[in-house]
Automatic annotation (TrEMBL):
Protein name according to UniProt: Phospholipid carrier-dependent glycosyltransferase
Source species, domain of life: Bacteria
GO cellular component term of the entry, any: plasma membrane
Organism: Silvibacterium dinghuense
Name of one Pfam family that matches: PMT_2
Amino acid sequence: MTESRLPQPQLRAILPLALAFAALKIAIHIVTNVMAQRAGYGIFRDEMYYLMCGRHLAFGYVDQPPLVAVMARATDILFGYQHMWSLRLFPAIAGGVKVLLTGLMVWALGGERRAAALAMLGVTVSAIYLGIDSFLSMNCLDPMFWLACMLALLRIVQAESPVAVRNWWLVLGVSAGLGLESKVSEVFFLVCTLIALLLTPQRRILFNRWFAAAVGLIVLLALPNLLWQIHYHFPTLEWLRTVSHSDKDVILSPLAFLQAQWIMLLPSTVLLWLPGALWLLFARAARPFRFAGITYVLFLPLMIALHAKDYYLAPIYPVYFAAGAVAWFRWTGRSRWRNALAGAYAALMVFGFFVALPLSIPVLPPQQFIAYEKKIGFAPKDAENHAPTVLPQFYADRFGWTDLVAQVNTIYHALPPAEQARTGILAQNYGQASAINILGEHDGLPTAISGHQNYWLWGPRGYTGEEMIVLSKASLAEMQENYASCKVVGMRDHPLAMPWERGPIYLCYGRKTTYAADWNELKYYY
């Protein structure tokens, strides 16, 4: 039997099971988001920003490519933002597609239904995927595109007809191109995968005209964002450079980074994905797919060297869940006790799911969550440096927004009508500005401006600073350096919010220089 003709189960045997697991994944997120809203958690800080980006559709943004804004705009039009389950329905569906592709990955690797079920269960219960698929962001999209690329490569390696080769290269081109319009970190995945292919006999698949066509598709789909970057003088590079020279992100040591992989995927799943990576690297039966294992060996140290966030590797792991499940059932064979062991292991992962769920999705009210952390002796670690908080940042960033909007609304409408007509709102960051613009859009408030991220590109919107409501952590003396007069008219002090979302609200008059004149100084890419 040649490497290109490995035995494979029929797709129709696995596909219904994969669809069922995908539906289960989507249902989990619908139910848990309903629970989260009932537990008191509101819209997430970044979700409001993405909704605003969706209302300013463009081919790029300072801190992300355009696809998440397109998803946010579609969500805004179809569902609005009042209900968390519908606001986050597209991420849930993306999570379901990820599970489905994991099952198809098992099929491509020569596994059967039991292996597909085990792999999809592992992906479904993993803590990181519970988290990233539970809210609106680009992180839910990455695994979908990466997995489609890897699935295409596995099928190209096994293809027995030119038509199959053509079709799968086109799938890869579209997936990779759209992935680059979702998050630029996919570049590292694509480069590592290309190097891995060049290091194995499967490099032969690159000497094909359809590989060139796939590259052309990638370039074509990524080109709009590239042209946008050129037009605005590469703001994303400026933002990344600013962050890299700051103390914003937690820098993990190599050992801590490895430990984070084990924790974020759910500790019990290490017996699935790690054997999968090893099977791809060393098993004779996996020789045609060796490049998939080598990709991980290249990608992991690269992310450590670049001081990436621990979850930047998350999109690639379903490949190793699939391979691990194939390896498991090659080992169990027809042995009853080995199959029973596989069943017990599946039950262990389900148990881990219920333990990890409150730490991944905020289904418990804040005080119950705090008690739960203490009971199990584990608290999630944040990826950014900040002062101590009651809740982890992923949860804390859902509090304080309605209180902020209510205060600003009261302050603004207490002004005489003549003053309201000339008063604007200046926010310190995109979270505050987006909260006012999204949650306060029906209150008759003026559009909030900011120098943070893409708000800087959107400009001061004609406000000169004649009269402004200003959200800032600066002292009154510091504020009066820029304005003829300022006074504190409110205080942001929600106990569960992040530290930078607490501070005074000022009413300021007579800015000494206009915003247009000082706009470059107000730029805040961070």
